Every structure is written in structure tokens, then in C-alpha cells.
Amino acid sequence: MLLVGLGGTLLLGGLAFARAEQLAPPAATAFGPPLDEIEKTWTSFWTAIATGDVAGARQYVHSYPRSSVPRDRAPQVLLERSREMAHCRLVPPPFPVSDDEVAYRVVCEHAGERAESVTSVRRDRDGVWRLSSF
Questions:
Q1: Structural domains in the chain?
Q2: 37: nearest Cα among 121, 114, 111
Q3: Helix, strand or coil, per DSSP, at residue 121
Q4: Closest of 59, 60, 50 to residue 81, by C-alpha
Q5: Residue 102 near residue 95, CB atoms below 8 Å
Q6: Structure pTM?
Q7: Which of 68, 69, 78, 109 is the most exposed place for a label (fewest CB within 10 A)?
Q8: What is the mean pLDDT for each group of 10 consecutive residues in the chain (134 residues)?
Q9: Which residues contact 84 (CB under 8 A, 6 or more apart)?
Q10: Distance CA 112, CA 77 (A)
């Protein structure tokens, strides 16, 4: 069964978390950081969530929403989302949102169903690109 949640989070029945770089090959982008850098951030965030390291996951979230994400969600909900995201991949090219923010399509495929959403990354005060929506 395919469900689309609030805030652009895709919900799919799933198994263990798969690394994003296993799902899509790295590619250079015209806007923002290279795709492989964002895939590493994406993978590290969801891996931390999958292992219950919510505090560790926050380092991959932009400082602006960091205070509420993912603290505002129950650990079991986050664990389930990490399993669902195992079937998702970032799809280039990104599209610019602003000078310091780009968005990527997120495609999730599982059990013959497909869903799409958008996630964005924003350059933080320290120059590192971090998740700003997911």
C-alpha cells in the first residue's frame, strides 16, 4: 500500500534501509552541491534514524529547522519512515529554490507502486549543505 504523508514525506511499506548511492549513481549538478554529496547526507540521516540515533541525525539537518526535526516525531514513527525511505532515491537534476537552496525529486518504488515527492537542501551558516525539508 502506498501512502503520502504530510510535509512531503513518502510512506511505503519497507524493509531495512538501503544506502542512497546504491539506488542512483552520483552525478554532477548545475546548481548546489554535487549529487553524491547530497546522497551521502541523505543516507547518513536515514541511517542514523534507522539505528535510533536521533541526536546524530540532527547534524544532517539545516540549523533553521533542526530544533524541531526530528524531535517532534515519536521514535517508532521515525524508524518506520527510515524503512520506507529504503525504497526511495534522489533524482537529478536539482532545481534552484534560492541562491543557497536546491530541491530534488524523491522517487520511491515498492511492490509495483511509485510515489514522488521533493526534498530540499540548504547551505548552512558553516557552508555545509544540509537537509532543510524531507
A1: 31-133 (3.10.450.50)
A2: 121
A3: strand
A4: 50
A5: yes
A6: 0.71
A7: 68
A8: 35 36 42 90 92 88 69 74 90 92 95 94 93 84
A9: 10, 11, 12, 13, 14, 108
A10: 24
